[in-house]
Design goal:
The protein has about 375 residues and is of the alpha/beta class. It is built from nine helices and 15 strands.
Length: about 375
Amino acid sequence: MASRRTVLQTLALGTTASMLAPETLLAQSAPKKDKLGVALVGLGYYSTDLLAPALQKTEHCYLAGIVTGTPAKAEKWKKQYTIPDKNVYTYQTFDQIANNPDIDVVYVVLPPSMHREYVVRAARAGKHVWVEKPMAVTAKECQEMIDACKKAGVSLSVGYRLHHDPNTQAYVKFLRDGKLGKISMVNCSAAYYDGRTDHWKQKKEMGGGVMYDMGVYVLQGARLATGEEPIAVTAQQYTTRPDVYRNGLDETSMIQLEFPSGARAVLQTSYGINMNFMYVMGEKGILRVEPYSAYNGVKGNGPGGFTFDTPYPVPGQQIRQMDDDALAIKNKKPMLVPGEEGLRDIRIVEAVYEAARTGKRVKI
């Protein structure tokens, strides 16, 4: 644990203020209890298969409540996790969560188009907020979420699980320590074949499209690798399944980023092919990460005999993420991944869509 904390502090206090830097609100009203109660909002795959199981193994938080619009799901979860009736909410009764001292944190795990509404409502209810990525559909919504949490005096964190992975922390420290020298190029890919046809990821009005989902990972890869914010982007988007990805919805996005140092990034993200890697080229060699954004097994190597391969079972990343964030709230410390970090990515996503639409280089 000591070494992981040291790396975490190194990331948080790195030379690039915009990367992993906790310039957000400190939690103002940390409850005095051993474990914080978490309410999951939305009981789809991610909550069911990853977050709920992870919350059975966390040290600093636990599954205290649920919010769902499906009565059958509510009954199943109540029995499976011994959740009392008073901690079960519908989307219509959600605001009553303000009166429940069992619940300290609301974790919004809904389609992106619903993130802003429930983050703002949770903040107004006086609860700390965790929100899944992408943070929201527009930068404007992200800012409104940040402002609402600041106004309410609660903390806000985005569910970027990879930031909490010791493998990510190891290679970012390696790069920040200058072990690769000046970085010239990043090539990052996060893609898988999605055979679904009626999921929110295939619905534009719900925040669908690969750029909002897997695309956030490649943007993060480029930003973490360079330690910089991009200044311009060009992009191309297309689909091989126009019957599924309709009205300009992107099945595949190809992105080229420019950074102030002169570094470049070539990024690929898709729902049509399986790819997952990151290669960072620098003066002293190449850092290889493969797989790059998997739920476990993230590993790689670099110059000078550097390797990283810390094993853990799924849902290890989610356990670390929620424990790190709960501990930050309890200790009134900054979040490792504040709302501002999610906002930065969505600004780039918007620029990617504009570049792809116009065919022009877009300044960020």
